Amino acid sequence: MTPRNTRQTGAVAALAAAALTLTACGGTPAASSGTPAADGKLAVVASTNVWADVARAVGGDAVSVKAVVGATGDPHSYESTAVDAATVRGAALVVFNGGHYDDFMPQIIKNETGKPVVEAMKVAGQDEHAKPETAEAGHEHANEHLWYDLDVVEDVAKAIAAKLGELKADAKDRFTANAQAFTAKIDALEQKVDAIKAAHTGVKVTATEPIAHYLLDEAGLADVTPAQFSKAVEEENDPPAVAIAEIQKLVTERTARVLVYNPQTESPVTKQVKENAVKANVAVVELTETLPEGKDYTQWMGEQIDKLAAALKK
Question: pLDDT-based confidence at 127, cuts 50/70/90?
């Protein structure tokens, strides 16, 4: 996948310009003014394909769901187009992450008074202005990768069901039942995480970015990643030399049993950490930010949890 800090190109600007031209010439948005689409389905727009899939699982055949950012995109740095804006504004329900992860969404809807919205950060009760948590700090924080927090995903599914029930009262019971079926699958994933915790509590791991913070925490693993390294990578900056040396030592001396690697934030520095981990026979687990094509949320997350469990057994 393309590294995050090389993804901003003139192509985005060109697409935006083309979209503006289309709109100016009378192009019609994908959905219209928050009402059900022509086929009677509620138009739902989500910032990423992860939250889109959760909405799809809850809404079933009563909704038409669109994700702004797909499998290979990066919500952190995505620049929305005029077509995106028209589609979001025309949706009956908007679902996004919050916490400065997908800032293009609140920017689009900031003047949309009364727009039905489900924001994962607010559902989770997180303070998006809190400082990022580190292994050294040991306090709660506003880590934005909420789809790795299975409890929050369940709560978001329930919040979506409630909003959809308000918008389409005759399908309220169906939305509730769909949410219950979805959360039952999440409960099965939580059992897998509990099994990891039972077998590997306290095992040290490190990561190139705090993408899986909630999963690692729930599994009882000790994330020993240098705070400055995580912070720099997440903010698309080069980590300080001392932090690079610290994480390299963690893998070369095998202090960390597993390296969690996010290929969507890959850089020369993170690639070197990964290469050193492989040389030292430290298991590398690739966990991604967005949903791969052809997978639904529970399949994808289940496979990722299985990969982590397998790596810890090595």
Answer: low
